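HOLO CASE FILE
Compound: flavin mononucleotide
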Amino acid sequence: MTTTVWVPRDAGALSLGAEATAWAIAREAAARGLDVTIRRNGSRGLYWLEPLVEVATPAGRVAYGPVTAAEVPGLFDAGFLDGCAHRLGHGPTERIPWLASQQRLCCARIGVIAPADVREYEAQGGLAGLRRALGLPPAEIVRAVSESGLRGRGGAAFPAGRKWRTVLEQEAPQKYIACNADEGDSGTFADRLLLEGDPLAVIEGMVIAGLAVGATQGYLYLRIEYPQARRALDEAIAAARAAGLLGDDILGSGRSFELEVRLGAGAYICGEETSMLESLEGRRGEVRVRPPLPAVRGLFGLPTVVNNVVTCASVPAILAHGASWYRDYGCGESRGTLPLQLGGNVRRGGLVERAFGLTLRELIEDYGGGTASGRPVRAVQIGGPLGAWLPPALLDTPVDYEALAAAGAPLGHGGIVVFDDTVDLAAMARFAFAFCAHESCGKCTPCRIGSTRGVELLDRIRAGTDTEVALERLAALCDTLRQASLCGLGGMTPNPVESALRHFPEDFRARS
Amino acid sequence: MNEAIDAAIARHRDRPGPLLVVLHDIQAALGYVPPEAVPRIAAALRLSRAEVHGVISFYHYFRERPPGARTIRLCRAEACQAVHGDSLARHAEQRLGIGFGETTADGRHTLEAVYCLGNCACGPSLLIGEELHGRVTPERFDELLDGAGSAP
Ligand SMILES: Cc1cc2nc3c(=O)[nH]c(=O)nc-3n(C[C@H](O)[C@H](O)[C@H](O)COP(=O)(O)O)c2cc1C
Ligand code: SF4
Ligand code: FES
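Model generated. Tokens follow.
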């Protein structure tokens, strides 16, 4: 009888040697005359354990990690094919506390199934939402999404149902679904985990969106920095087409939906939705003036739903289980669950999907376990390059869109990056301006030129020349950026700068 | 070279908004978008040369000069900085004897900065071609350069 061993083909796991691990297992099994079937999954998102190898035993899947190729012979010796104990063993995967304590709704299948296997996808709850949607009038699909309370997970947290309703109400010869997989924020990788670990969920969500608003063409805008996600998507789209999830007769319903992947080209600003639409149309990614909203005049001038990957992937389960099932998770106006991403200098980094309401401290201390370097946590960056820096004292804020915004730390796409006490916040503030200058689309003067002024001011502050004057100018520059920017790149760059200054003023004093 | 350019144009010209797709195809085939491509694309897609050039220059990924045999894209974003990505960047520059955006004199390596590879829990990260590497120490960087870039 063959034993199934799962080895992730997730970019993160591959970056730590998962391919060599898979080869080593195959080689070792052959040498020992053992019958092993290696299957490839996505990552469960426990990155300090990657490559995380799982053995399918009669009692369920048992985890070992991190398993580099060099560890493989020892694992065979210890009898890992029977789930035996080993220094790298973690017992049944689903009972690892870090994973067992999560509420994985959107990311329920990542690391569990082979990503392009439609049958396994269906066995694990996939397609139920699409089947349900095929039996509903469009307005009812929109209503389910509205009532679920789902808000956009790409950063702006706009209610998904409201956006869909606007598109549904437009009269147009063609409408589009544009999935935003540009995932540019440092510290974020939930989109990538989904695209590589459960791409069919993203596809299913897009098809449901198409049924809801009357769109038959979808585009998925994928950043070029994700070559493994591109491969996973290509495989999944081919499988989806073969299984009738895409094409002109979705699951025999006579309804149609086509999907094309388009690649970005290394411009952070193209994650901003109107810039992304320009880029999809084959132009420079210059931000558009709103109104009109993309929902009214979007791609090629036609009504378009723009949703983030996580938003799309959250939809199928909402349709399958009902709006109130999803709504019952979360707190306040933040309903459902959020896949948070723990990265940077953290001991146990990875993906934590939990209902809104847990605190940043639980995340960083309980899940993260402090820094990887063993030094004290000094600063945490919340919400990517346009988010804020917080000191450990302020980590009791709950993960909730409104609560975090009130604390001056917008949640963005849910990236949490941990830094130890070697971080220099003045250098990070300088980086924020340099990044803005590097990525500005050039449309507004404060963003295009002011960001470079910001870099110069921080250089003066750090050198200790004329600090008082420079700090005053810095405050004025931040005001201008906030007020006179067309989009969040210029408008939110003050977030990291001002929060660094507010919470870590000692780093802005001249060093002797 | 012109064949590759014309083939890319022919493959994609009928798609809606084809310019980026065409540029990607050309860069995938040739490693860069040569100046000769601009007038050919402009004529085929009924755009001005300035428009085509404007798009090429807007995107950091497209390049107008041939790269080295291998491109190393090293992440300079915050989560990688948190695990001393800056020292790795300095090491890479020293070891290769070039700065970011440059190609070694022997034409073997091009070094580029990127901002996040989605591997933020396993930094510092870099791509060699399309192969991602995580937790890259300076020693590991040297091994990767010497060992043709295969995973551990
Ligand atoms: C500078 C900037 C960068 C952005 N980058 C992304 C991104 O990479 N991915 C994303 O989904 N949304 C990004 N957004 C938010 C999008 O503009 C938009 O709100 C989102 O894609 C809508 O989908 P959602 O409602 O499902 O979140 C960015 C916004 C700004 C201002
Ligand atoms: S704020 Fe910056 S990126 Fe945004 S539209 Fe203005 S110039 Fe472009
Ligand atoms: S910040 Fe380097 S991979 Fe994300």
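CASE NOTES: The CA atoms of residues 136 and 212 of chain A lie 9 Å apart. The longest strand of chain A covers residues 337-344.
CLOSED: yes
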